[in-house]
UniProtKB/TrEMBL annotation:
Gene3D superfamilies: 2,3-Dihydroxybiphenyl 1,2-Dioxygenase, domain 1. This is VOC family protein. It holds the Pfam family Glyoxalase. It comes from the Bacteria. Residues 10-126 form the VOC domain. PANTHER family: CATECHOL-2,3-DIOXYGENASE.
Length: 278
């Protein structure tokens, strides 16, 4: 099954502040292969399929650089359809001299890098769910080195752009308190599926390895950044139906806004709640 449509609750769009909209747009189009869906003076929506916005870039008036040691975005994660796509983008990123980190997480194979403002990006492909190892309702994940030779041995084409089937696979957030975050996201219907000691927690719906990652690597009690700083503005969670959405809104005290509901988690990370029909 896909973990990015009903009955799962999943991340669809991530909105971030950038300090130079044109520079950011060019980076995401040229380096990642997004297409522009909409554009105005202060905002660009980017898409892979020409219909669904996966990433929104915003340059607010008085924008500030990213602020260190705060809550907010650790990275957003672009999910590619296949290992061949991962091989293609590795060649492409290397040709553009993008400095990469890389890991084999057992459930997935992933690349890591930053945009020009230091916003974290993961690009990954999932292994088949039958290959994931579960024990006591937790999925085993590691940070083993990625076997680049094995990945690149897969027959693949030259990179042109993101495949239409590309999804926003997950988001990983800095928070100020893991226990508080786990309780809050439980009210949105997410369950813990992997823990890294007392430092990080991975949560999901419908048995995915994670739709959301949470960590306190910027320090327990880390403050929220300025709303004008480069970094996360909000992200969108898509619920499978109106009933589950309304339950989540009621439990968290979300406010109704145009097209859905809005809430901030205890670490002030903004979340827009909607259903797939909206």
């Amino acid at each position: 099954m896909s973990f990015h449509h009903s009955p799962a609750t999943f991340v669809e769009e991530v909105a971030i502040n950038v300090t130079n909209l044109e520079r950011a747009k060019n980076f995401y189009v040229t380096i990642l292969g997004f297409s522009v869906l909409t554009k105005d003076k202060n905002e660009v929506q980017l898409t892979a399929d020409g219909k669904t916005s996966l990433l929104k870039l915003i340059e607010p008036e008085g924008v500030q650089p990213r602020q260190p040691r705060t809550t907010g975005l650790y990275h957003f994660a672009i999910l590619l359809p296949s290992r061949a796509d991962l091989a293609s983008i590795i060649e492409h990123l290397a040709a553009h001299d993008i400095q990469l980190g890389a890991s084999d997480h057992l459930v997935s194979e992933a690349l890591y890098f930053n945009d020009p403002d230091g916003n974290g990006i993961e690009v990954y492909r999932d292994r088949a769910k039958e290959e994931w190892n579960w024990h006591n309702q937790e999925v085993k994940m590691t940070v083993d080195p990625l076997d680049f030779e094995e990945v690149m041995a897969v027959p693949h084409d030259a990179w042109i752009k993101l495949p239409e089937e590309t999804k926003m696979g997950h988001i990983h957030l800095h928070v100020s308190d893991l226990s508080e975050a786990e309780d809050f996201y439980g009210k949105l219907g997410f369950e813990a599926v992997c823990r890294y000691g007392q430092q990080a927690l991975f949560i999901s719906t419908e048995g995915y390895h994670h739709h959301i990652g949470l960590n306190i690597w910027n320090g327990a009690g880390a403050p929220a950044p300025s709303e004008k700083a480069a970094g996360l503005v909000q992200y969108t969670l898509v619920f499978p139906n109106e009933e589950t959405l309304l339950q989540a809104a009621e439990k968290t005290g979300a406010a109704q806004v145009a097209g859905g509901w809005f809430i901030k988690d205890p670490s002030q990370n903004g979340i827009f709640l909607k259903t797939a029909s909206e």
